[in-house]
Amino acid sequence: MQAGGGSSYKPRKPFPIDNGFGDPAVLRYSIHRDSHPTGKSPESNMNPAISKTLPAIGGRQLYDHFIEIARNRITTRQFDPDYEMPKEHYEMVLEAARHAPSGANAQPWHFIVIRDPEVKQEIADYFVAEQRLRASLKMKFPTPNYAGLATAPGFIVIVADFRYVKAFPMLKDDDSDLNKMYIENAERILLQSVAAATMSAHLAAAALGYNVWWVTAIGQQKAQEAMRPLLKVPDELAILDIMCFGPPLKEPYKRWKKSPEEIIHWDVFDRKNFPTDEELDIWIKEKRHKVMYKDASRID
Fold this sequence. Notes:
By secondary structure, the chain is α+β, with helices and mostly antiparallel strands. The chain folds into 2 domains: 180 residues, 3-Layer(aba) Sandwich (NADH Oxidase); 47 residues, no CATH class. The chain contains 9 helices and 4 strands. A 4-stranded antiparallel sheet has the order 1-2-4-3, with helices on both faces. The termini are far apart. 20% of the residues are buried.
């Protein structure tokens, strides 16, 4: 089947930009002397190879394109089952992930591209069973329908190597409370690093015109035990997330986001947007299910 075979979906074309370097595959901008607030060129303090790949300081052209991609990174859990993901698009998405920042530049990640429909179905079956288990436990969490995993055209399993925590600040062979603090922070550094790579991949998929789905339930120990032999993942590694992407089966919608005023604090934390425990409990009970699964325009 050809990419997109049997589907009327057509990925959005990249934004047309004349980069002036004769290379349409790469967006490149030079920094101009008059763009610097001091009137001096910053190029003298930069690696020449890097200076030709950055936009002008304060320039909006590239930012405006980026913010549209960020705003249109929309989650869907039902994909067009007839669309076949081109191998090139996997490579493009993971090239973005490869360039993500990481603590100590350790890059503690691996990405398993799943193309086998039977493997996708087996993973989907596991999570559908998990969905039913949560319902039977009366967890009162609006668990998504995981059946859509089976038909996701793009399917990547994100794996982390927690042995790299040793690359971050900590004391060696020390069981003190002080070192426990350092170890906890090292684990956070690693998780943040892998999350940065995953988010970069999501944005790249959105830039290619796809909708995405970030599946985090795979981090549970039971899920680890089920997925590890299926994917032949070494015991030393941890399976953290699944990234699905592709054309949506039906028209997607933008979910509610907090306003800038609710999340931005200038110089010090402003407690006016800090909910009490009671207010947070009310939000979870009365609003969480709405913001998870409703169009932003339909939130009260």
